[in-house]
Specification:
The chain is mainly beta. The chain is built from one helix and 19 strands. The longest helix has 22 residues, at 146-167. The two termini are 16 Å apart.
Length: 169
């Protein structure tokens, strides 16, 4: 991982966090235990703070950034798919963000939500727990089933297992 200070801000990274050489973490960023950061992830806390809680994974090519009025907060057991953009938003626990999705400033995604691949959650949009959202802009598609909730759990656990495999080398 490339850990870069910005002004007087140094990233705070807990133990048992794994990131690749191409993972970049800048500035006011706090990352909790058991977080997996895949290749070409950019986490840039140069305008506001970013926090990523335990057992979350941020997949290849994802960008997490902020602006002066909106920090980025990511809860526990969150799976963020490849090439997502999260900008100044709050993602609560047990959420799956599909590949290529864009989540804009002030968006709030509560626990137990799936955002389908390629979706756009607009600025200041507040979603409801227990739903699958899809589209541009993202709209409710259907309530989550027990199978969906199990999938959210399996997704984060699969990436923790992958992380453990990389760490054992």
């Amino acid at each position: 991982m490339q850990i870069i200070n910005y002004k007087d801000k140094t990233p705070k990274i807990s133990k048992n966090v794994f990131g690749f050489e191409t993972t970049i973490i800048i500035g006011d960023v706090t990352i909790s235990e058991n977080v997996f950061l895949l290749p070409n992830v950019s986490i840039r806390g140069d305008m506001n703070y970013i926090s990523i809680d335990s057992f979350s994974n941020v997949q290849d090519g994802t960008v997490i950034h902020t602006d002066w009025t909106y920090p980025a907060k990511i809860g526990k057991r969150v799976t963020i798919g490849h090439n997502a953009i999260l900008h100044g938003c709050e993602i609560c626990d047990d959420v799956l963000i599909g590949m290529g999705s864009i989540i804009l400033n002030g968006a709030y995604i509560p626990s137990n939500v799936i955002i389908a691949a390629g979706s756009l959650v607009g600025q200041n949009k507040k979603l409801e727990s227990g739903w699958l959202y899809a589209g541009v802009p993202a709209k409710k598609v259907r309530q989550l089933t027990d199978e969906d909730l199990t999938y959210i759990e399996k997704a984060y656990k699969a990436y923790i297992e992958l992380m453990n495999g990389y760490q054992s080398k």
